[in-house]
Write a structure and sequence with these properties.
The protein is an alpha/beta fold. It folds into four domains: 71 residues, 2-Layer Sandwich (Alpha-Beta Plaits), CATH 3.30.70.100; 184 residues, DHBP synthase (Alpha-Beta Complex); 118 residues, Nucleotidyltransferase, domain 5 (2-Layer Sandwich); 212 residues, ATPase, nucleotide binding domain (Nucleotidyltransferase, domain 5), CATH 3.30.420.40. It contains 23 helices and 28 strands. Helix 1 packs antiparallel against helix 2 and helix 19 crosses helix 21. The protein is globular, with a radius of gyration of 27 Å. The two termini are 38 Å apart. Bound molecules: zinc ion (2 copies) and fe (iii) ion (FE).
C-alpha cells in the first residue's frame, strides 16, 4: 500500500545494516535495490517480512540477485509514473498517538492544528484522485508545503517522510465559521466559537473526513428535539461521539470486543447497549436499546471533544435518504435549513464516505455498514482470476459496488439507496473512481436479477458481458467467499426482499449453494404484499395479510382489535385488493414477517426508516430475558418438492398469546425463538437429505442480534459448522461482493471446462 511509511522504513533499515542502494515507490509496489555483505542482505529481507511499519500489509516479496554496481549511499527515489497500478489504496485512518501528542504540546508548531497527520494516520481514500499516490493527485494539491514541512517530507528518517497530506498552520488548510446564511462569522478561533454555540444549544454542520456531520449537545433535550424536527426524523437513532473509552463506558455497557472496535484506527460507529441513567436526552436514540457510539477520529474531533460534553450527536449531514453532503457549496445549500452554523475547511473531500457501523454479536463483530476506515481495503476471493476482472454493481438499497483485481475484491464505500438522482450520480462516480484508482477494466458486469433496479440498467448499458446473480445466492456467496469456501453449503438467507428466479419476491429462503449456483429447497409461506413497496413501509398491511393467512374470515375482526387506526375504509380497500389480487405480489420475505409481528404487537405501525419495526421488535424481545417459549410452524411439501414453512402458524400462536394476556416482550421473545427454531429444523432436514454439515447465514435479517445469537447457539449445539459474514455486511451492502465472488467462480469453472 502507498502512504504507510514503507520507504522511510526501508531507508532506516538499510542504514542500520550498513547497506547501500535505493528505494522507490512504483504503482506496482515498492522496489528497492540493496548492496552489501551477504549476512546483512539476508537480515534485511528477514526484517521486511517480520517487522514492516504498523499500517503496512506486505502482500508478497519477490527478489532476485543482480551484479553489484558499487553504490556508496542509500537514496530514496521519487514516484515512477508508469507501470501497472497494482498497489493498494489505504482507507482513512484515525489520528495516531504521536500526532495527538504533538497537537497538545504548546511548543509544537502544530499545537492545536486541526489537520495534523503523518504516514501513520490521516486522510487517504477520501482525498485521493488518482494513482500513484502523490500530493499532486490528492485534494491537498493546492497547498504548497512551507520550508519546515518540506524538510520533514524529504527527511527519510522523519515520521512525515513522503506523508503526502502533511501540512501545518503555516501552509495547510484552515477552519472557517459561517452562519446559516453563508456569511463569515468573525472570531479568533472558529473551533472555540463553534463549541460555544453547541454549548448554547445550537446545531453546527461540521466538515469531517468523508462528509459533513450535524453536531449538537446530546445531553441537551431541546437541541436534540430541534435537530429531529429539522431533519424530519422522528425515531431513527442518532450516532454520538464521546471523548474516549471511559466516557463511552459511562453511558453504555462495553465489552472487550466493543472497546477494541471503538479504539481501532478505523473508528467505526459501534452499537452498544445503553446504561440506565446515562444522562443523554431521550431523543438521541428513542425506542432503541443501544447507542451508536464512536470516538474522535480527526484532530478536529479531538479538540471538539476536549470540552466536557457527555457526548455530541454527530449524525450525517443530509436529509433522510440523500447521500451525505461533502462539498462546502453542497453543504451550504442542502444543510442551510438544518444547521445554525457551518464549521468549514478548505481541504476538499474527493469521495464522500459515511461512518461505518458495526455491532458485536456472539463475540464477533458484524458490519451494518462498511465504509469509512475500511473502504477500499480488499477482501480475498477464493480464486485468482487474473485477466478477467469483474465489476459487481450490487442491488438497490444500502448499495456498495465491488471490483476485482486478481485474487482480491475491492468493496467501495457505502453508496446508499439508488432510488434518488443524487445517489445514482454518486453510484456512477463510485464505479468510475474504483475502476480508476485500481486501474481495472472489467470484462464482465455482475448484477442483481431484478429487472427494474437502476444498478441493473447501468449494468446493461455498459455493453459488456453480463452475469446475473440471484439476490439471496449473492448473500450466501458473500459468506462462502469470505470463508474461502466454494463447495456445497446449506444457505439460510433472510432479508426484506430480493428478486427470485421465478420472478417472485423472495426473502425467507433455504437453499443448497455452491459458489457458482444454488437450488432452493425451502421457503417461507408466500403471502400477499398489498400495494407492493408501500407495504414495506406500512407494516399494518403486512399484519393484515398475515392475519388473513392465519385466520381467514376472522381476520377483519382481529385487525380491528389489534391494529388501531386500520379499521374502516382502509381495511375494506386492502381486503378487496387481496381478494381481487390487485397490486398484491406474493412475498416469502422474512423482513415482512418481522414488520407484521411488530404491528400486531402494537410496537411499530410504520417503518419511517429502514428496518425500524424489526429493530424495535428486537429491542422488546430483549426485555424478556430467559424466555424460551416458541410457536411451532408447520411444513408443507409443494408440487415441485419445495418445503413451505407455515409462518401463519406462528402468527396464530402469537395472536392467541397476545390476546390471552402474555406481555408484548414475552410474545416478541417467543417470536424470535420461533424463527431460530424453524431455521434449525430446515437445516436438520437438509442435512438428513444431503449430508452437508455447513450452514451459511446471511441477509439483512441476520443483523438481528437476538435472532442470530439464538440460531447460532442452536446450530452449533446440533453439530453444524456455521459460517457468518465478518469483513462484509450481511445486509445488502455485502451483495456486490457476493455477486463478484459468484461471477469470478463461474468464470473459473467455465475456464476449467474448456481446458478439460
Ligand atoms: Zn499521525
Ligand atoms: Zn507547513
Ligand atoms: Fe438482501
Amino acid at each position: 500500500m502507498q502512504g504507510v511509511g514503507f520507504r522511510p522504513f526501508v531507508y532506516s533499515l538499510a542504514a542500520r545494516l550498513g547497506l547501500y542502494g535505493h528505494v522507490a515507490n512504483d504503482p506496482a509496489g515498492v522496489i528497492t535495490e540493496i548492496e552489501g555483505e551477504q549476512e546483512a542482505t539476508e537480515r534485511f529481507l528477514d526484517a521486511l517480512r517480520s517487522s514492516p511499519p504498523p499500517m503496512a500489509r506486505v502482500a508478497s516479496i519477490t527478489f532476485r540477485e543482480i551484479p553489484p554496481t558499487g553504490e556508496t549511499g542509500f537514496s530514496v527515489r521519487l514516484s515512477a509514473q508508469h507501470g501497472a497500478r497494482t498497489t493498494l489504496i489505504l482507507p482513512d485512518m484515525a489520528t495516531c498517538g504521536d500526532c495527538l501528542r504533538e497537537m497538545s504540546a504548546p511548543d509544537d508548531r502544530r499545537y492545536r492544528y486541526a489537520f495534523i497527520n503523518c504516514t501513520n494516520c490521516g486522510p487517504r481514500y477520501t482525498i485521493i484522485r488518482d494513482l500513484p499516490y502523490d500530493r499532486s493527485r490528492t485534494t491537498m494539491s493546492p497547498f504548497e508545503m512551507c520550508p519546515d514541512c518540506r524538510r520533514e517530507y524529504e527527511d527519510p528518517a522523519n515520521r512525515r517522510f513522503h506523508a503526502e497530506p502533511t501540512c501545518c498552520p503555516a501552509c495547510g488548510p484552515r477552519l472557517r465559521l459561517l452562519s446559516s446564511d453563508g456569511t463569515e462569522i468573525a472570531c479568533d478561533d472558529p473551533l472555540e466559537e463553534t463549541i460555544r454555540r453547541i454549548r448554547a444549544g445550537r446545531i453546527a454542520a461540521v466538515k469531517g473526513l468523508g462528509g459533513f456531520h450535524l453536531a449538537c449537545d446530546a445531553a441537551n433535550q431541546e437541541a436534540v428535539a430541534l435537530l429531529r424536527r429539522r431533519k424530519h426524523r422522528d425515531h431513527k437513532p442518532f450516532a454520538i461521539m464521546v471523548r474516549d473509552v471511559r466516557a463511552a463506558a459511562r453511558i453504555c455497557r462495553i465489552g472487550p470486543e466493543e472497546e477494541a472496535l471503538l479504539s481501532s484506527p478505523e473508528r467505526p460507529i459501534v452499537l452498544i447497549e445503553k446504561r440506565e441513567g446515562n444522562g443523554l436526552a431521550e431523543g438521541v436514540a428513542p425506542r432503541s436499546a443501544s447507542f451508536g457510539v464512536m470516538l474522535p477520529y480527526t484532530p478536529l474531533h479531538h479538540m471538539l471533544m476536549a470540552e466536557d460534553f457527555t457526548a455530541l450527536i454527530m449524525t450525517s449531514g443530509n436529509f433522510s435518504d440523500e447521500p451525505i453532503a461533502h462539498s462546502n457549496e453542497d453543504a451550504r445549500v442542502r444543510l442551510s435549513g438544518l444547521a445554525d452554523c457551518f464549521l468549514l475547511h478548505d481541504r476538499s473531500i474527493h469521495i464522500r464516505t459515511d461512518d461505518s457501523v458495526v455491532q458485536v454479536i456472539a463475540q464477533r463483530s458484524r458490519f451494518l455498514r462498511r465504509s469509512r476506515g475500511y473502504a477500499p481495503a480488499p477482501v480475498k476471493l477464493p480464486c485468482d482470476i487474473s485477466g478477467g476482472e469483474i465489476l459487481a454493481v450490487g442491488p438497490e438499497l444500502n448499495n456498495t459496488i465491488c471490483v476485482t483485481r486478481s485474487g482480491n475484491a475491492f468493496l467501495s464505500h457505502h453508496v446508499g439507496d439508488l432510488q434518488n438522482v443524487p445517489a445514482y450520480e454518486s453510484f456512477i462516480q463510485a464505479v468510475r473512481h474504483m475502476e480508476d484508482i485500481l486501474a481495472v477494466k472489467p470484462s464482465v458486469v455482475a448484477r442483481d436479477m431484478h429487472p427494474g433496479y437502476l444498478s441493473t440498467r447501468y449494468a446493461m448499458e455498459r455493453g459488456l458481458p453480463i452475469e446475473p446473480v440471484q439476490h439471496h445466492h449473492a448473500h450466501i456467496a458473500s459468506v462462502m467467499a469470505e470463508a474461502g469456501r466454494t463447495d456445497r453449503v446449506i444457505g439460510v438467507s433472510f432479508d426484506g426482499m430480493g428478486w427470485g428466479r421465478d420472478g417472485g419476491l423472495w426473502g425467507g429462503e433455504f437453499m443448497l449453494c455452491d459458489l457458482a449456483d444454488f437450488e432452493r429447497f425451502g421457503s417461507l409461506e408466500a403471502v400477499p404484499q398489498p400495494g407492493g413497496d408501500v407495504a414495506s413501509k406500512d407494516t399494518r398491511r403486512m399484519a393484515y395479510a398475515f392475519l388473513r393467512a392465519a385466520f381467514g374470515r376472522d381476520a377483519d375482526a382481529l385487525a380491528c382489535e389489534m391494529l388501531p387506526g386500520f379499521a374502516g375504509e382502509e381495511l375494506r380497500i386492502i381486503s378487496r385488493m387481496i381478494e381481487k389480487r390487485v397490486n398484491c405480489p406474493l412475498t416469502s420475505s422474512m423482513g415482512r414477517l418481522f414488520d407484521a409481528v411488530a404491528a400486531l404487537l402494537g410496537i411499530c405501525g410504520f417503518n419511517s426508516f429502514h428496518a425500524q419495526a424489526p429493530m424495535e421488535l428486537e429491542a422488546k424481545a430483549r426485555e424478556a430475558k430467559g424466555e424460551d417459549g416458541f410457536y411451532e410452524a408447520g411444513r408443507a411439501r409443494l408440487l415441485d418438492g419445495m418445503i413451505e414453512v407455515r409462518t401463519s402458524d406462528i402468527v396464530r400462536g402469537l395472536v392467541s398469546d397476545a390476546r390471552g394476556g402474555a406481555g408484548v416482550a414475552v410474545c416478541a421473545a417467543r417470536f424470535h425463538n420461533s424463527i431460530a427454531r424453524l431455521a434449525l429444523d430446515m437445516c436438520l432436514e437438509a442435512r438428513k437429505n444431503t449430508c452437508v454439515e455447513t450452514v451459511a447465514l446471511s441477509g439483512g435479517v441476520m443483523a438481528n442480534a437476538c435472532l442470530l445469537e439464538r440460531l447460532l447457539a442452536m446450530l452449533e449445539k446440533d453439530g453444524f459448522e456455521v459460517l457468518l459474514n465478518a469483513d462484509v455486511p450481511p445486509g445488502d451492502g455485502g451483495v456486490s461482493f457476493g455477486q463478484a465472488a459468484v461471477a469470478a467462480w463461474r468464470r473459473r469453472c467455465a475456464l476449467q471446462c474448456r481446458l478439460e
